[in-house]
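FORM 7B: Structural annotation worksheet

SECTION A. Query
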Amino acid sequence: MSVKLGVAPIAWSNDDMPELGGETTLDQCLSEANQAGFIGVEFGGKFPKNSEELIPKLDKYKIDLCGGWYGANLRKNTVNEEREYLRSQLNLFKDCNSPCIVFAEVSGSIQGDQKRKLSTRPKMDNDEWKSFSYKISEIGKYLEDEGMPLAYHHHMGTVIETEADTMRLLDNTNDSVKLTLDTGHMLFAQGNSQKILESYYERIHHIHCKDIRKNILEKSLKNDLSFRDAFLEGAFTVPGDGCIDYRPIFLTLKEKNYTGWLVVEAEQDPKKANPLEYAIKGYKYLHKTLNSVDLEIFKK
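SECTION B. Predicted structure
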């Protein structure tokens, strides 16, 4: 039994804020991800959109595609419409043997609006929850049939943000709807990743290891900052540089025989947090902590 270690390209360049790492090339990102020790990287905006270009690029740096974000609009779209929007990314991910699509609902999201306080994020009434849960279940079944699991990502500033939101989603969808457990977003929403892990392990397909700087989290919550202001302040960082103790989480993963990906992800300004330096820091912490619980790391 072993886990795989990946990293998100957002440390090198931010798709939502191109001014952060806009000059950084994809080759630099992939080369440094490999140099830090990672064998996988999630999809990003600078990646080729066709497998004929992407696969050779990944192979050059001995890196696998280990997932990637898909922002859905199921609150507005029909299931059939969303399937059509998904199709090109689904085909690409299947060609690249990605383990999942990291799926999140972004209708009404305030995550990219610097003027919107996090307390103003969208919410659904009971009727919309029923409709949304049905649609997510249908998309989950569709992707399961395609061999590409839907791994739902709870996210600050969206309709599925909190521990309660996440539990409600899983309780009201079928088993084809899996979860991307993001430790940083769960803590930011004042939830408990360990509780989710233990209560819904069978639904967890993918894990984002995002750490939090406690002092900035407290400031962000106290002042009700926007999501963008919070991460520009430095709320997020790599494992081992924040306040989350990953050892209990990894002990549970060992007990449950988890064999999926652990992906280091931390939105930061690359001019303030050198991507290679922080990638190495995150990798070393994960390596040390996984070794301490005798959880093997997969090597290519």
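SECTION C. Observations
The chain has a mean pLDDT of 97. The CA atoms of residues 80 and 139 lie 9 Å apart.

SECTION D. Sign-off
Analyst initials: ____
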